[in-house]
Amino acid sequence: MPDMATEQKSFKFKVVLLGEGCVGKSSLVLRFVENKFSSRHLSTIQASFQSKTINIDDCKAELHIWDTAGQEKYHALGPIYYRGSNGVLLVFDITDRRSFEKVKNWVLEIKTCLGKSAEILIVGNKTDLEDERKIARQDAEAYAETEGAIYMETSAQDNIGISEAFEALTAKMLDRARTAPT
Ligand code: GDP
């Protein structure tokens, strides 16, 4: 009998976190990689680079996740941060209008630094604070669509939507990698 098992294809992707300080970037990574949450501001204590492998369909995707480590506050994200990125998680806080307005600046920066070479997932974080919501989901969705990005919402605190967000971004990166000319 022939062996019907299909061989798993392996991919490596660089994913960068972007967005204003305190929106929960490091918390999303900590929840995704270690399934932990801390009420402290993590940027200064969290490692700036982590990896996690996920399986989608017949593919194994090794994600190399770069966190800003607080440097976004000083506009100090140099070209090395962006170089070779396959995907961007652009995070804002649904209770903080300013963090959403700044998303437009981050999109401009992504387009300047990466052109169209990376998939963008815009994430509205802190959905556990629904009572304090300042940005309607449909407004964020409509904006993301104009930029050719996906929009998803998460709560790092309550572990809602995190693996779904990373999986959706990975699925887009896989689609692109599988259809890229060799
Ligand atoms: P960063 O500067 O964007 O990396 O943000 P951090 O991950 O350090 O989070 C900033 C603050 O927001 C910390 O006090 C976190 O505990 C808090 N935080 C992060 N995610 C959530 C969330 O989903 N819900 C709530 N309520 N707080 C969160």
Description:
The protein has 182 residues and is of the alpha/beta class. It has one domain: Rossmann fold. The chain contains 5 helices and 6 strands. It has a 6-stranded mixed sheet, with helices on both faces. The protein is globular, with a radius of gyration of 16 Å. The structure holds guanosine-5'-diphosphate. The site of guanosine-5'-diphosphate has 20 residues, from helix 1.
Can you lay out the helices and strands and say which pair or pack?
Blueprint lengths: L8 E10 L6 H10 L14 E8 L2 E8 L12 H4 L4 E7 L3 H18 L4 E7 L11 H10 L3 E4 L8 H18 L3
Parallel strand pairs: 1-3, 1-4, 4-5, 5-6
Antiparallel strand pairs: 2-3
The protein binds guanosine-5'-diphosphate.
The site of guanosine-5'-diphosphate has 20 residues, from helix 1.
Task: Describe what is shown at a glance.
The chain is an alpha/beta fold and about 180 residues long. It has 5 helices and 6 strands.
| Alpha carbon gap, first and last residue | 33 Å
Overall mean pLDDT stands at: 91
Give the quaternary arrangement of the chains: single chain
| CATH fold group | Rossmann fold
Helix share bin: 25-40%
Strand order of the largest sheet: 2-3-1-4-5-6
Query: Helix segment count?
Result: 5
What is the makeup of the main sheet? 6 strands, mixed
Global structural class:
alpha/beta
